[in-house]
Recover the amino acids of this structure.
C-alpha cells in the first residue's frame, strides 16, 4: 500500500469532494485546486511481465534435436562473441558446414541487426573453398558494411564485385552511400547519391529514405528539404514520397526547430493519402512542450485506430511529469501496462523523474523498486534521478544515504550525480557542504561543467558574497567554458548596486569577445523550475530506431 498524497495532506480529516476511482485502482481526490492521487497497489505486477516457461512443441524427435542444436549454437555464439569459431566446429567430415545452418544463422543475425556477426561470417565464407560465394552473398556483405558505417569495408567489397564481373547496381551503391552516411562522411554519401541521380543506377525508394536520414543526421536540412520537395512536386519523378520519407521529414523539422513545417508536413500526409503510423504521431509528440498538446496528439493517434507503443506512452508520461502532473503521468504508465505494452528502463526512468521533480520520495521509491521487480535493473540515470527526489524534497540526509548506496551498488557517480547533490546543498544554503562535494568530485577526476559552476556562483551570490560569485563566473573561463545565457542572467540578477552591474556587464562583454572558448551548448543540464526546455535524446534515439525498423530491408 502506498499513498500519492503529499505528506502535508496526510493529516486532513475530511475531503471536500468524494473520491472517484479509475479502472486501474487509482483514486482521484480534489485537494487545494488540483487532483491528487491515492494509489492502492501502485504499479502492481502484470501477468505479461512475469517470466513463464514456454511450452515447446516439436514435430518429431528429429525436429527436436535440430531445434535444440540450433539454440545451442546461438547460445555459444552469444557467449563467445564470435560466430566463425562456433560454426567451424560444426563441419561435417572436415568438408564444410551444412548450408542450411549457414543460411539460417545469417538470416537470424540479419533480423537481429547484428551486422558485425553477418560481416564476420560472410568474410569467412569468402575464403572457404567449399562455399560458392555468389552475387547475393556480396550484396548481403556490402549491405552489412553499410549498416555498420564501415565505408572502407564497403569500398573493398564493391571493388571485389567489379573484379568478379558484378556491375554496380542500386543495392551496392545504396549500401556504399549508407556506409559513408553512418560513418559521418556526409559529403561522400551525397556525392554517391548525386551520381546515381545523374548517371544511374536509378535511386530506389530505399535509397531516398537513406539519403534523407543521412542528411538529417548530418544537419544538412536544406539538402533534405530540396530532395523531398523534388519528389513531392516533380511530375516526372519516378516515385513519390512514402510514409517513411514523410516521417523522416517531420522528425527533421522537429530537429531543426521548424515546428510549423512539421505540422504542415503531417497535414500533407493526409492530403496525399499517405497512411500515418504510430511513428508519425510520436514524431509530432516529441517536440511539443505543452502537455495539453501532447495529450491531444495522443488522442488523435487513438482516434486513428493506431496502437500507442512504449515511445508514445513515454512521451505522454514525460509531458505530464514536466508539468508536475504526477497523477496523470502515473495513470498513463498504468494504462500502458494494462494495454500489455512492455516498458523499457528509459520509460521507468521517465516516470521516476515525474515524481522526483516534485520531491515525492515515497512514490519515486516505489517506481525504483518496481524496476528491480520487473528486471529493468536501474542504471546510473535511475540512481541519479532517485537521488534528485531526495534533493527536491530538501532531504539531504536521505540524499547522502542514497548516494552511498549508489556507490555500494557498484556505480561510479558522474558530473550529473554530483551536480544533483550540490544543487540540494545550494538550495538549503549550506555552502560548506556544497564546496565539500565540489572538492570530492574533483578528487574523483570529474571535471566541473557549466551547470555546476553556475550553481556555486548562484549559491555564493544569494548568500550575499558577490565577490565570490564573480570569482566562480570567471572560473568558467579557467575551465574552458563560455558562459551561456542562463549563467549571465544569474550573475546579472545577483548584482544589486550600479557598480556591481557595471562589473557584470564588463565581464559579459569580455566573454562575448573571447571566441576561443567553446559555447555552453551540449553540457548536461539539470531541470530547474523555470526551465521549459526538454531533453529529447531518449526520444531521438527511439524514433531513429523506429525509422530503422520501418525501413524496408534489402533482399
Amino acid at each position: 500500500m502506498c499513498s500519492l498524497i503529499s505528506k502535508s495532506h496526510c493529516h486532513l480529516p475530511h475531503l471536500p469532494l468524494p473520491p472517484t476511482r479509475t479502472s486501474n485502482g487509482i483514486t482521484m481526490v480534489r485537494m487545494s485546486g488540483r487532483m491528487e492521487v491515492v494509489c492502492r497497489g501502485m504499479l502492481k505486477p502484470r501477468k505479461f511481465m512475469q517470466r513463464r516457461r514456454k511450452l515447446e512443441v516439436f514435430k518429431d524427435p528429429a525436429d527436436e534435436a535440430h531445434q535444440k542444436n540450433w539454440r545451442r549454437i546461438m547460445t555459444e555464439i552469444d557467449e563467445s562473441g564470435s560466430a566463425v569459431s562456433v560454426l567451424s566446429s560444426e563441419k561435417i567430415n572436415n568438408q564444410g558446414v551444412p548450408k542450411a545452418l549457414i543460411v539460417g544463422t545469417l538470416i537470424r543475425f540479419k533480423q537481429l541487426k547484428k551486422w558485425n556477426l553477418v560481416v564476420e561470417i560472410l568474410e569467412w565464407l569468402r575464403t572457404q573453398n567449399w562455399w560458392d560465394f555468389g552475387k547475393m552473398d556480396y550484396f548481403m556483405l556490402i549491405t552489412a558494411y553499410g549498416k555498420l558505417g564501415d565505408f572502407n569495408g564497403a569500398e573493398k567489397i564493391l571493388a571485389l564485385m567489379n573484379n568478379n564481373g558484378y556491375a554496380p547496381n542500386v543495392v551496392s551503391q545504396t549500401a556504399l552511400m549508407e556506409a559513408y552516411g553512418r560513418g559521418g562522411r556526409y559529403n561522400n554519401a551525397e556525392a554517391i547519391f548525386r551520381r546515381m541521380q545523374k548517371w544511374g543506377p536509378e535511386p530506389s525508394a530505399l535509397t531516398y529514405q537513406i539519403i534523407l536520414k543521412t542528411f538529417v543526421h548530418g544537419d544538412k536540412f536544406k539538402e533534405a528539404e530540396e530532395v523531398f520537395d523534388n519528389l513531392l512536386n516533380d511530375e516526372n519523378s519516378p516515385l513519390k514520397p512514402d510514409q517513411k520519407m514523410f516521417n523522416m521529414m517531420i522528425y527533421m523539422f522537429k530537429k531543426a526547430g521548424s515546428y510549423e513545417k512539421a505540422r504542415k508536413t503531417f497535414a500533407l500526409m493526409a492530403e496525399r493519402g499517405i497512411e500515418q503510423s504510430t511513428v508519425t504521431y510520436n514524431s509530432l509528440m516529441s517536440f511539443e512542450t505543452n502537455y495539453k498538446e501532447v495529450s491531444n496528439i495522443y488522442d488523435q493517434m487513438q482516434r486513428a485506430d493506431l496502437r500507442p507503443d512504449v515511445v508514445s506512452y513515454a512521451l505522454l508520461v514525460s509531458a505530464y511529469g514536466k508539468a508536475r502532473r504526477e497523477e496523470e503521468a502515473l495513470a498513463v504508465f498504468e494504462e500502458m501496462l494494462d494495454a500489455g505494452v512492455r516498458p523499457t528502463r528509459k520509460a521507468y526512468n521517465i516516470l521516476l523523474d515525474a515524481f522526483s521533480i516534485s520531491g515525492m520520495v515515497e512514490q519515486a521509491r516505489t517506481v525504483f523498486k518496481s524496476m528491480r521487480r520487473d528486471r529493468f535493473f536501474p542504471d546510473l540515470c535511475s540512481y541519479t534521478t532517485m537521488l534528485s527526489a531526495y534533493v527536491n524534497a530538501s532531504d539531504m540526509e536521505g540524499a547522502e544515504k542514497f548516494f552511498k548506496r549508489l556507490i555500494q551498488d557498484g556505480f561510479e557517480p558522474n558530473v550529473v550525480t554530483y551536480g544533483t547533490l550540490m544543487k540540494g546543498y545550494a538550495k538549503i544554503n549550506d555552502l560548506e557542504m556544497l564546496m565539500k562535494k565540489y572538492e570530492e568530485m574533483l578528487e574523483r577526476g570529474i571535471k566541473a561543467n557549466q551547470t555546476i559552476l553556475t550553481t556555486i556562483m548562484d549559491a555564493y551570490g544569494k548568500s550575499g558574497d558577490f565577490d565570490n560569485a564573480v570569482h566562480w563566473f570567471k572560473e568558467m573561463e579557467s575551465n574552458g567554458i563560455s558562459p551561456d545565457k542562463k549563467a549571465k542572467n544569474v550573475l546579472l540578477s545577483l548584482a544589486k548596486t550600479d557598480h556591481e552591474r557595471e562589473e557584470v556587464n564588463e565581464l559579459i562583454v569580455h566573454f562575448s569577445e573571447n571566441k576561443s572558448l567553446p559555447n555552453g551548448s551540449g553540457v548536461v543540464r539539470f531541470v530547474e523550475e523555470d526551465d521549459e526546455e526538454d531533453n529529447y535524446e531518449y526520444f531521438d534515439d527511439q524514433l531513429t530506431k523506429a525509422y530503422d525498423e520501418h525501413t524496408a530491408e534489402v533482399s
